[in-house]
Amino acid sequence: MDCIFCKIVAGEIPSAKVYEDENVYAFRDIQPQAPVHVLVVPKAHIASADEVSAENAALVAEIFKAIPKIAKAEGLANGYRVITNCGEDGCQSVKHLHFHVLGGKKLSERMD
Ligand code: 5GP
Ligand code: ZN
Q1: How far apart are CA 63 and CA 35, in angstroms?
Q2: Residues with beta carbon inside 6 Å of ligand 1?
Q3: Burial class of 3 by CB neighbour count within 10 A (0 to 12, 13 to 18, 19+)
Q4: Ligand number, closest to the Cα atom of 46
Q5: What distance in angstroms lies between residue 51's CA and the mean position of ligand 2's atoms?
């Protein structure tokens, strides 16, 4: 499958890894929009939040177990934001489910 995040997980495209476990991989966004901007992905290909189902929801739970560990390691003790863009109106550009973890400054109150 021609998916850049599958290639990053496989090590075929280099990335700045910040966390990895059996099911989850996290790396720095190549165009950071905050002092800390990490992308957290399932190793298995799921296209978007719209494709989460009873069969793969455990992988999403694994991601949300990893996020506090990543936030702690990144020094985000004062808080952070978790975002997933979905589909055309959500401005999703990479069609492999990913959660943006943003922090390291006081973020904008608006999310649009
Ligand atoms: P989306 O717009 O789909 O929510 O987010 C995709 C994110 O992936 C963007 O923030 C973009 O900067 C990041 N990105 C795209 N290609 C690469 C890449 O090859 N390496 C890394 N580290 N980030 C990427
Ligand atoms: Zn993929």
Answers
A1: 21
A2: 4, 13, 15, 27-31, 39, 85, 91-94
A3: middle
A4: 2
A5: 12
Cα distances (Å, whole numbers) of residue 62 to 43, 57, 102, 107, 112: 11, 9, 19, 25, 27
- Give residue 50's identity as a one-letter amino acid code: D
pTM (predicted TM-score):
0.98
Q: pLDDT tens digit string along 53-89?
A: 999 999 999 999 999 999 999 999 999 999 999 999 9
Pocket mutation for ligand 1, best pick of 13, 18, 28, 31 (most atoms within 8 Å of C-beta): 31
Question: What whole-number distance in Å separates Cα of residue 66 and Cα of residue 97?
Answer: 15
Q: If we measure between CA atoms, which residue out of 48, 43, 79, 77 comes closest to residue 63?
A: 43
Q: Give distance in angstroms: CA of 24 to centre of ligand 2.
A: 12
d(C-alpha 68, C-alpha 73), whole Å:
9
